[in-house]
């Protein structure tokens, strides 16, 4: 009987081959400050099943690469160079076969010290947040070459420090956080501002608590909620997103020691947990459960290496990669998908002054 069963199974397998499992390996890109002659951009391979890492290539063409984003096909990388009044956005070709980066274009941001850049879902625009310059640079992307135009600059006042831009889920507007003025601005993109050679219309100022210091904004996978990490207050502001508007409904502490150095924020791929990093004291990751009504409940805290400026979560939800700038390391944490808690698997990646880490399909 057994021999007949195995013969039948072999026959079925031949007729209906089993689906191949997805490639567990992704490219991992890291940007870094380059004061110590280290590479501005480094490419690794990261195994999303084991958490192991392999160095692929380094690129020295972008000084002080503070943040980057990329196209959906992963063929273009856009990195902002934090270089005072000489700051630029670089366009790099990415060879997915070899993992090598090559700069093909650069444009001035016309605003000092950009610390964030984002791309809209339709890949029409890049928006850079200029921290010292207190402005936003809006670039149109060429439909064929995907290189950016000379930017339109949206200036604010001397107290402003723009830190992040985030496109709304419907693609009709984008938000910009002003850490210096405790404000978040919303700009309309439906009037095609760049084609008309005029800045987009500001359609809202989102009210924030005084002394908050808004830093990074992220939207929930359900597109109904958004969450903002505030650097100075160390709190997360939760919002509903309805009919193109944000309305706050919760303000909860991520930093419990008053360090005034909260940095990054991300949501697990299943939408069940939210994570926020804190620096300067008790450096680590605050862990929150996202309840059915969108409100947060703090469920844990994971201490990390010094200055966890940025982190990312693997698409399969298995791992978190934490870039700790002051300790020159990216730590690898396994995520417990039931509790949201983190476990350091001791597979550190040594790299000087990492400031942004992201994963891409190969």
SSE blueprint:
Elements: H1 2-15, E1 25-32, E2 41-47, E3 53-59, E4 65-70, E5 76-81, E6 88-95, E7 100-108, E8 114-119, E9 125-130, E10 135-140, E11 152-155, E12 162-167, E13 173-178, E14 183-188, E15 202-207, E16 214-219, E17 225-230, E18 235-242, E19 245-253, E20 262-267, E21 273-278, E22 284-290, E23 296-303, E24 308-313, E25 319-324, E26 329-335, E27 342-344, E28 349-350, E29 354-360
What would your notes on this structure say?
- Among the domains are: 22-60 and 310-362, no CATH class; 63-207, YVTN repeat-like/Quinoprotein amine dehydrogenase (Methylamine Dehydrogenase, Chain H).
- Strands 24, 25, 26, 27 and 28 form a 5-stranded antiparallel β-sheet that branches.
- Mean pLDDT is 93; it is low at 8-20.
- It has one helix spanning 2-15; strands at residues 25-32, 41-47, 53-59, 65-70, 76-81, 88-95, 100-108, 114-119, 125-130, 135-140, 152-155, 162-167, 173-178, 183-188, 202-207, 214-219, 225-230, 235-242, 245-253, 262-267, 273-278, 284-290, 296-303, 308-313, 319-324, 329-335, 342-344, 349-350, 354-360.
- The chain is mainly β.
- The N and C termini lie far apart (45 Å).
């Amino acid at each position: 009987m057994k021999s007949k069963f195995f013969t039948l199974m072999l026959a079925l397998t031949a007729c209906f081959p089993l689906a191949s499992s997805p490639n567990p390996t992704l490219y991992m890109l890291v940007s870094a400050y380059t004061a110590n002659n280290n590479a501005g951009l480094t490419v690794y391979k990261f195994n999303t099943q084991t958490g192991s890492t392999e160095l692929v290539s380094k690129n020295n063409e972008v000084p002080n690469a503070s943040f980057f984003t990329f196209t959906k096909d992963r063929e273009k990388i856009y990195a902002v160079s934090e270089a005072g009044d000489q700051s630029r956005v670089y366009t790099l070709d990415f060879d997915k076969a070899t993992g090598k980066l090559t700069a093909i274009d650069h444009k001035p941001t016309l605003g000092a010290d950009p610390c964030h850049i984002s791309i809209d879902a339709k890949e029409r625009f890049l928006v850079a947040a200029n921290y010292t310059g207190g402005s936003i640079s809006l670039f149109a992307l060429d439909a064929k070459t995907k290189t950016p135009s000379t930017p339109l600059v949206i200036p604010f006042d001397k107290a402003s420090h723009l830190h992040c831009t985030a496109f709304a889920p419907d693609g009709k507007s984008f938000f910009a956080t002003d850490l210096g003025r405790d404000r978040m601005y919303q700009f309309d993109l439906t009037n095609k501002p760049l084609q008309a050679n005029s800045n987009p219309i500001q359609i809202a100022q989102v009210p924030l608590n005084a002394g908050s210091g808004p830093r990074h904004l992220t939207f929930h996978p359900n597109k109904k909620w958004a969450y903002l990490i505030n650097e100075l207050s160390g709190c997360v502001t939760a919002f509903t997103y309805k009919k193109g508007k944000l309305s706050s409904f919760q303000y909860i502490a991520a930093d419990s020691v008053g360090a005034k150095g909260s940095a990054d924020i991300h949501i697990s791929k299943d939408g069940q947990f939210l994570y926020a990093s804190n620096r300067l004291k008790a450096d680590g990751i605050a862990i929150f459960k996202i309840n059915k009504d969108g409100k947060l409940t703090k469920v844990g805290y994971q201490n990390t290496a010094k200055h966890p400026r940025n982190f990312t979560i693997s698409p399969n939800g298995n791992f978190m990669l934490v870039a700790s700038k002051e300790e020159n390391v990216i730590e690898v944490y396994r995520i417990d998908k039931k509790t949201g808690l983190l476990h350091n698997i001791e597979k550190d990646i040594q790299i000087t002054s990492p400031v942004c880490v992201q994963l891409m399909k190969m």
